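Re-running the complex after MR caught last week's input typo. The corrected sequence lines follow. Everything else is unchanged.
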Amino acid sequence: MLAPRDDPSASVAENSDEALMQAYAAGRAAAFDTLYARHKGGVYRYLLRHCGNVGIAEELFQDVWMNAIRARDRYAPTAKFTTWLYTLAHHRLVDHWRASGQAKLASIDDDGDEGTRAIVEALPASRGDEPEARIDARQLREQLHAALATLPAVQRDAFLLQHEGGLSLAEIGQLTGVGVETVKSRLRYAVAKLRGELATLGASLREESR
Amino acid sequence: MTHDPDNPERDPVLDAAWRDLSTEMPPARLDAAILAAAHRATGGVPQPVVTQETGKGPAEDGVKTRAATGPQRWWMPLAAAATIGAVALGILQTMPQHESVIAPTVSDMPARTVEQPAALPDTQRDMLQPKEKRDAASALAEADTARAAAAAAPPPAPSTAGARKQAAKVAAPPAMDRIVPPPASPAAAPQPFPAERNADSGESAESTDMKSRSRAALASESAAAPPVAQYSGVARKDERQRSEPSQSAPAAARATALEKTAANSTRPARDNDVDAWIVRIHKLHDEGKLVDAASELRALRQITPDVDGRLPPELRAWAATVKP
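Corrected-run output:
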């Protein structure tokens, strides 16, 4: 499992997230500062990618952290902090969609359509040697975000939980209430779709460069 | 680039692209608000947030974050209030102390009268009722004067136990008799002390009978204006007291005391009266007023049954003819 990108374990490796949360629950406010600095970006992007609206994402983001502050006494050190934190974010997101009449994450078994499946099957096993890194970053970001937005909510949720929260397959399955195989399936479809978008964008850019 | 065999759903290219392209961060105002809330929850002061990606805090990023000064904000009005309170207290302490003027209380309620305790010790009664004590003392002084006048004539030895008791009472009256204030009115009259009541009730029937007879004799004297009454200043005073029903409380107290004294001094007066009565009967007999003399003799017999033995020899034959 990969660590979240905001994890400053290199500088504060002596303090785990769980220890910091326990310290904060015991009254050490400084521990919360470290926790917030580690995970604020991932939680914010998780919410922003789901919502697509900065204002709503900020509102949800603040609610998630406020809930974490209020629920500090109920935090059980047996659970991983990131799992606990992204569970709060996931639930807040579901509540938001329910309140707004949407039910994106309510369809648990939405594993994509046949088009996505075909893209995944057509993708090569490894494309690390291709020059995608040279693609214009701005165009690539926009294309990638657009491709993510077209993903089914459950696939997008699994992808974001893995890439922003650094959760394992089992943790994602625990958080979303599905099995590991289901999580794998969702991730496979999501990755295939995004890689296809990247390949398309790279081909077009190569043609333009000629 | 190799595919992760343990996690085939991850693509290194996609991961690298995602890591490079997805760098959005929450605004600094959200950081400040959330950290302030977190520190308020624990009562601490938040530290500047160091952005992980840039390694700089919000202030360093050019965003002014408002310091979470919650704990610092609340004590300022409290300190101001405490300062004002201290200044006010100091001013009050330095102000001259004025004597508190208590306005007279106007009330519709009647003035509370001092109730006379029924059974207080002598000393307490003396302290509570000085005026009544003075009245009683003056009454006792008068009674003592009358008693001294009555004792001027040597009294005969008491013939009965009750008379002896009366004599002892006159010689050494109990302290209770001296200090008991007379009642202002019969309704408000305090109940007699148990000892006094027992003493009164413990007197022999003979003594009681003697008292009643003495009073009856005095009453008959006043009705017939006998010369005996002129000899007894005590009787005159008693009669005067009884003729003034509308007496004030001290006067009534004095009358009560005098009545007691007179009752105690009836025995010597009675002896003198019997002799004077006999002289009067003798005089009426000599004047030929036998009817009046017989009437007087009958009256005297009611008081002193053995008066026939005390009559002069020249009257005994006549007295034997006077039937009761």
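None of the earlier attempt is carried over here. Chain B is about 65% helix and 0% strand. The interface with chain A takes residues 1-3, 7-27, 30-31, 33-35, 37-39, 41-47, 49-53 of chain B (CB under 8 Å).
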